[in-house]
Amino acid sequence: MNNKTKTIFLFGFTILIFAILVNSIWAQNTEPNRNFILYSEYTNIIIEEGESLDLDIKIINTGNKMEEVLLSVIPDEQAKNWETLLKTSAWKGFEVRKVELLTEEPDNSKTLKFHIKVPEEAVSGNYKFTLKGITKDQQIEKTLDIIIGITEKKEETKKKEPGNIEMTTKYPTIENPAGKEFKFSLEVKNKTEETLMCDLGIQLPRGWNAYCTPQWKDDRISSIKIDKGGTENLSLTVVPPIFIEKGEYPITFIVESGENRASIDLKAIVTGTYKLNLRTETGLLNINTIAGEEKTFTVYLWNEGSAAIENISFFSAKPEDWEVIFKPEKISSLPPIAETQKPEKVEVIVKTPQRTLPGDYMISLTTTGTQDQKKVEIRTTVKTSTKWGWIGIGIIIIILAILIGIFIKLKRR
After folding, report:
1. 147 lies in the same domain as 223
2. Cβ–Cβ < 8 Å for 373, 367
3. Element (H, E) at 409
4. Assuming Cys at both sites, which of 182, 198, 237, 308 could form a disulfide with 257, CB separation 3.0 to 4.6 Å?
5. Mind listing the pLDDT tens digit for each residue in 5-31?
6. 214-239 pLDDT, tens per residue?
């Protein structure tokens, strides 16, 4: 093999190595897998004329990319004038037309209420409603058909008239913040001429719980014995759902023995709910950075409750000698997202020491307010600087230039 042939072979081999190196440096990620589910446990339901319905609807992101899903309700021609909407909860919920779904549980799914109010004039029969969800870029569309069967209203059973039982309370209305129990003190009098064994009952808003005890005791009871002309003092504890909306909720307590019956109307006023949410701008819980350099990323903070969260601060748990900076460092008040219609934007700056070894590290970001807090874990992948890769490319270019020069020189000979 002469010198000219050796030079050509060496030139070709170097070009091949160069192409492989450049391809590895500039390789692109594959397109993310995308999909979501629109789901309900019940899709064919029968209710009476004039009644209302709140049906759970779940939207679940099954892909690995954050999705913004636009929602709408499409009734058939016979039900165009019905009251229908998707909202956050059955009690005082607000209408929802778009949801944002992250990729990891539990933030990859939302449960909404499909609210339907049947008009009094609606005739018996089946009515179809199509729930439609479509991604913001209109690439993925899902539909869910709900069939509502309407029947004639049954004749209401005549209520028993109150008999010779009397029930009173000094405080029929109690106001508490969200998450706190309501305790009512009740006095029940037997004004008959015989001893009564009375059953206790209660009518509550959906999702609420309650129990009754003798006053100053902890034993839960469902009935009481009241002597002729006697009086019993009861304590009624009413427990709201965890994420109850702000508002007023009616409660009816009933004492009944045969034809003798008494009821009392009570009211629980919830002053507000608080629910902090925190997520990254991309929806992903991992970042990449270079040892000795700064990495800046954005997180969004919002309040899904019904009342403002006060005095919000940011904290981090990080590896030794690392530095995490928040901008801003504090937020004095965060109103509900239903009022602001947009989240708060917070910049997070991560500084790693120069001698940090390549690998994966965990950073905990905690947002704490007076009423609630939220924590997320961020996996941070530290890499070495790519400057050595560019130096290698530079060396290859120099070698190529030398080989080309040798090739040209040999060709002239």
Report:
1. no
2. yes
3. helix 387-412
4. 198
5. 656 666 566 666 655 655 544 444 445
6. 988 888 999 999 999 899 999 999 99
Give domain status of residue 349, yes or no. yes
The answer to whether residue 407 scores a pLDDT higher than 90 is no
Question: Distance between CA 344 and CA 288 in Å, rounded?
Answer: 24
d(CA 312, CA 373): 9
Residues 343 and 255 in one domain: no
Can you read off the two tokens belonging to residue 135? 């991604």
Do 336 and 300 fall into the same domain? yes
Residues, the chain: 413
What stretches of 76-124 adopt beta strand conformation (E)? 83-87, 98-101, 109-117
Distance, in Å, from the CA atom of 351 to the CA atom of 132, rounded to the nearest integer, reads 45
Integer CA distances (angstroms), 219 to 213, 222, 273, in order: 6, 10, 30
pLDDT > 80? residue 2: no
Residue 119: CATH number of its domain: 2.60.40.10
Bridge partners, residue 197, by sequence = 225
Tokens representing 188 are 């029940």
Amino acid present at 15? I
Q: DSSP character for 78?
A: G
Together in a domain, 129 and 199 = no
Domain encompassing residue 188: 165-270
End position of a domain, from candidates 241, 270, 299: 270
- Tell which of 104, 127, 151 closes a domain: 151
Q: Is residue 261 part of a domain?
A: yes
Cα separation values, 349 from 290, 320, 326, 364, 375, Å: 13, 16, 7, 13, 17
Q: Provide the number of structural domains found in the chain.
A: 3
| 215-to-212, 221, 235, 333, 381 alpha-carbon distances in Å | 9, 11, 5, 40, 60
Token pair in block for residue 232: 């019993």
